[in-house]
Structures are given as structure tokens and as C-alpha cells.
Amino acid sequence: MQVWAVSNQKGGVGKTTTVVTLAGLLAEVGYRVLLVDLDPHGSLTAYFRYDPDEMERSVYDLFTELPISSASVRDLILPSSHESIDLLPASTALATLERRAVGKEGMGLQVAKALRTQKEVYDFVLIDSPPVLGVLMVNALAACSHLLVPVQTEFLALKGLERMVRTIEMVNRARRNKLEFTIVPTFYDRRTQASVASLRELHRCYGELISTAVVPVDTKFRNASLKGVVPSALDAGSRGVHAYAKLLRNLLERRRQEQAHG
Ligand SMILES: Nc1ncnc2c1ncn2[C@@H]1O[C@H](COP(=O)(O)OP(=O)(O)O)[C@@H](O)[C@H]1O
Ligand SMILES: [Mg+2]
Fold first, then answer.
1. Which tens digit of pLDDT belongs to each residue from 76-85?
2. Are 146 and 251 in contact (CB under 8 A)?
3. Best substitution site from 221, 223, 246 to test ligand 1's pocket, by max atoms within 8 Å of Cβ?
4. pLDDT score of 77
């Protein structure tokens, strides 16, 4: 089982879209995928037509007295509209967690522990993380082996990225093995000067860390979310889906190389 998190301390950069699109593409080639919604807004949960205001059980339960076992975690997982994609949903109660979790020992590893109980069930876990640095983001970063950081190709977004990179550096000081990450440029529009210039700036500042797959502006993402289906099921040939397919190929190739080198 491979765990990837998608994170950026900024909303509206394409985090949830990245999770959903990659999940669809992974499921298509036969992988079993679990999606984890750690954002109190619950957009990923809502994407699959569950109401985060009404969830009786959710990822929130991992932070209560519930003993974490394979069965107790199974109980929290819901099916999605796609056969090979399951969801560990968010509930809006997650918003209260930051306050409750303060000072409690070990709260940073609850999600990692829960996922370990499911390692025979899924090939991939994709975590949608909240845009604030707190206990939930710390959980996402601690649970994953690779991090994707979507960043809008506009100048204001670059500032937010600096903050995210500092957060990753901080997390890496506490981790045994370094958390590797890939920055994924999103909302790219090659006809606009702002997009072109900020992509160039991203390359200048972050070089190799920038994904060669660049996600274009594509209205089909919104259409897919309105229908509650993964984008590749709506239109497998769209430019946006193409970009994510390239990103996925790069990530899988990288994983293959890492495994080959032990
Ligand atoms: N590449 C894209 N082109 C056009 N619209 C997009 C793209 N990526 C995401 N969107 C749309 O932009 C909105 C915000 O994206 P979302 O993935 O929810 O961002 P985040 O999770 O970072 O807040 C959504 O309505 C989504 O459908
Ligand atoms: Mg989101």
C-alpha cells in the first residue's frame, strides 16, 4: 500500500480535484483506492454525495477514544460511486479538533495508524488535506510516503507555496525518512502572461521539484464534480485528465525506481 497526500496551505488550488482525478485513473488500471478526507470543509466527501454536516461516523472518530483496529476503521469507510474507490469521509466536526487535540500526546499519528490496519485492502491511499497547518495536516504529512503540492500558476500562489515548503522542511526535521514532494502547477493557461511567467518563476525557484505534467485550466473538472463522478469517467480525453495521467505515470515510474533501489 502506497500513501500519497495532497496538500497546500491555500484553498482553491486544485487539491481535491487532484485527489479525485488521480483516484479515477488509478482505479481504471485496476488498483484499489482509498480516499481520506481530512479537510473539515469536506469537499471530497461532498464530491461523492455525502453530506459532511450529517456524517454520524467519520475520520473524526479516529481522534476520539475509539481503539484503532482493522474492524473499527472498516466501520468508518464508505463506498463511492466507483467500484474500486472507497472513502473515509470528513465531518464538519473535524473543525473542532484543533482545539481538542492540543497537548494530547500521539495525536499526530492517528491517521497513519488507521491506514496501517488497511494495508492489505488497498493499493493506494490518497489524502486530501486541509489548508491550515494543524493537527490534521500533521497527520496527513506523517501518514504519507509522497506529497503532492498543487499550486496555481499565478503570482499570489507562489507566496503560499513558500509557506508550504517551510512546513515540509519543519516536518522533515522530525521524520526518520525525508518526505519527498512534487509541486504540481495547476490552472495553467498558456495564453495568459501571468500563467506563463509564474510557471517560469516556479522552475527558477524549485527546479526539479516541479512536475513536468502541468494541469491546464479545464472546465470539465467542474462538470465532473457537479455530476459526482471522477473526471476520467466523464471525459477520458480531456486536456485536464491527460495532464493528470502524465503526472501519474511519472509518480508510478518514480515509485518503481525507488523500489528497484530498495
Ligand atoms: N485545472 C482546473 N481547471 C479548471 N477548474 C479547476 C481546475 N482544478 C480545479 N478546478 C475547479 O476549481 C475549484 C477549486 O478546486 P479544488 O480542487 O476544490 O481546490 P482545493 O481543494 O485546493 O480547494 C473547483 O470548483 C474545481 O472543480
Ligand atoms: Mg479541497
1. 999 999 999 9
2. yes
3. 221
4. 98
Which segments of the chain have a pLDDT < 70?
A: 101-105, 262
Task: For the chain, give the number of residues.
Answer: 262
Of 28, 15, 26, 112, nearest in space to 63 by CA: 112
- 136: cell is 490534521
Q: Is 139 in the pocket of ligand 1 (CB under 6 A)?
A: no
Element (H, E) at 138: helix 135-143
Which residues pair with residue 182 across a beta bridge? Answer: 148
- pTM reported for the whole predicted model: 0.97
CATH of domain 2-260: 3.40.50.300
pLDDT reported for residue 176: 87
Closest atom of ligand 1 to 128 CA is 21
| pLDDT on residue 258 | 86
Ligand 1 atom nearest 19 alpha carbon: 17
CB 231 within 8 A of CB 240: yes
Domain positions in the chain are 2-260
